Amino acid sequence: MQNRTDINIYQSIFNSCVEGILLVKNGEIVLVNPSSEILFGYKVDQLIGMRVEDLMPNANRKSHEKLRTNYEKKPEPRQMGVGRDLIAQKKDGTTFPVEISLNVADMGGETMTIAYITDISMRKKAELELQRSEEQLINYAAELEQRVKDRTKKLNEAIDGLQKSNSDLELQITERIKAENEARIALEREKELNELKTRFVSMASHEFRTPLSAVLSSVSLIGKYISDENRDKKLKHINRIKSSVGELTGILNDFLSMDRLDAGKLSASGKQILICDFLHELKEEMQELTKKDQVLELKCATPGVSFNTDPQILKQILVNLMSNAIKYSPPGEKVVLDVIIKDDLLIIKVIDKGMGIPKADQKHLFDKFFRANNASHIQGTGLGLNIVKKYLELINGTITFKSTEGSGSTFILNLKSMNDE
Ligand SMILES: Nc1ncnc2c1ncn2[C@@H]1O[C@H](COP(=O)(O)OP(=O)(O)OP(=O)(O)O)[C@@H](O)[C@H]1O
Ligand SMILES: [Mg+2]
Q1: N or C: which end of the chain has fewer CB within 10 A?
Q2: Residues with CB under 6 A from ligand 1
Q3: HSE toward the beta carbon, residue 377, CA cutoff 13 A
Q4: Residue nearest to atom 19 of ligand 1 (CA)
Q5: What DSSP element (H or E) covers 104?
Q6: With contact defined as beta carbons under 8 Å apart, do 296 and 281 qualify?
């Protein structure tokens, strides 16, 4: 028999134990500790006499009864409900997870079951949270993995795009190089063709000049031997042939000059010339070409002054300018040559009161074969001024002009002395 002190010790252990302790006999609660009140919400004296099944949800009661009866047949200390979650029910019907250890006790010859019950809500909650954060972690990892996959895919797409545009670029470059090569070949062909054309033109011009001069001399001879019959009419035709041959020779000469200038075959050589005398002679020569009552006037401000230039080239230039002034002015109008020498600069103006040049045509005037709109009824090839410009480059000269359609034109030459060369 235990003594009184032992009983008190057991009693206080029983009372202070935080686990709920139930003493059960044949499914009926016979003793409970105070913690059971907190666990189940029933008072101690309410709990005593209740069936243990009353402390679990309805759904589990039947199966528990069977398990319990089996246990009672062969009771032994063990953990209850291993491998499954045990759920208890409070007085107010709410449920909570529990862990239960079972033991057997012999109480005055009677076998009773002692159940130690622990509320594991907190642990479960913590487990759940852990599980949740594990899931979150897994989700996050999966999300990260997906993001990496997406990024990699985009990167790969960008690289693909880049590679494609690279190859596009390469293709473009090859095409451009091909086009450039084709253009170069075409240009070379055109150059060859141009050279061929120029060579042909200069050859033809050269070859035409000999028969033409034969025609001219024969016509002149015929003019001397004609009989009196219809003499005037015959002379008129002879003169017409002469002037046409002259025009043709002029055109051929222009072609030849142009060819020589383009090929760089001409070079200038300066010499000292008395400019007013030189121009006076030229004026006399040109007078032959004037129309009826057309007067050529020379205004030389610096008589007796010499100037260093190439006289042949200067003559070609002035013949062109003066024949234009004569050709594009009406009969009876004066053509003036105005000359001045200032230090090493020679300025010659060729002034006419003729038809002038339309404003819109002025910018093309020095282009090869260009002819102004208002000159189409007058014979010309549009080469003269182009040749003038090229000649001027050889003798340090420039040309400008002022013109008003219907009132006349002034062409101004500026020549630098060729002294220093
Ligand atoms: N003094 C001028 N007055 C009016 N128009 C002019 C004058 N000089 C040149 N032009 C215009 O400029 C054009 C080009 O002149 P350019 O001397 O080059 O050729 P062209 O006189 O027609 O032929 P050519 O080759 O026989 O000289 C002329 O066709 C004419 O329209
Ligand atoms: Mg001309």
Answers
A1: N
A2: 254, 320, 324-325, 328, 352, 354-357, 365, 370-372, 375, 380-386, 409
A3: 2
A4: 382
A5: strand 95-107
A6: no
Closest Cα to residue 408, out of 328, 338, 291? 328
pTM here is 0.56
Find, among 361, 359, 352, the residue nearest to 404 by Cα.
359
Task: Give every strand in the sheet of 335-342, ordered side by side.
Answer: 296-300, 335-342, 345-352, 408-416, 397-404
Which ligand 1 atom is nearest residue 254's CA? 25
List the residue whose alpha carbon is closest to atom 21 of ligand 1: 380
Give which of 366, 383, 418 is closest to 397, Cα–Cα. Answer: 418
From the list 274, 359, 355, 333, the residue with the least C-alpha distance to 309 is 274
For the domain with range 268-416, which CATH number is right: 3.40.50.1780, 3.30.565.10, 3.60.15.10, 3.40.50.300?
3.30.565.10
Cα atoms in the Cβ-side hemisphere of radius 13 Å centred on 1: 2
Packing angle between helix 311-327 and helix 275-287, nearest 10 degrees?
40
Length of the chain: 421
What superfamily does domain 4-119 belong to in CATH?
A: PAS domain (3.30.450.20)
Encode pLDDT of 190-238 as tens digits: 998 887 777 777 777 777 878 888 888 888 888 888 888 888 888 888 8
Q: For the chain, list residues with pLDDT below 70.
A: 1-2, 83, 420-421
| Residue 257 identity | S
Q: Are 32 and 47 in contact (CB under 8 A)?
A: yes
The rounded Å distance from CA 354 to ligand 1 centre is 12
CB 344 within 8 A of CB 419: yes
Q: What residues contact 16, with CB distance under 8 A and at least 6 apart?
A: none
> Measured between alpha carbons, how far apart are the two ends of the chain, in Å?
152
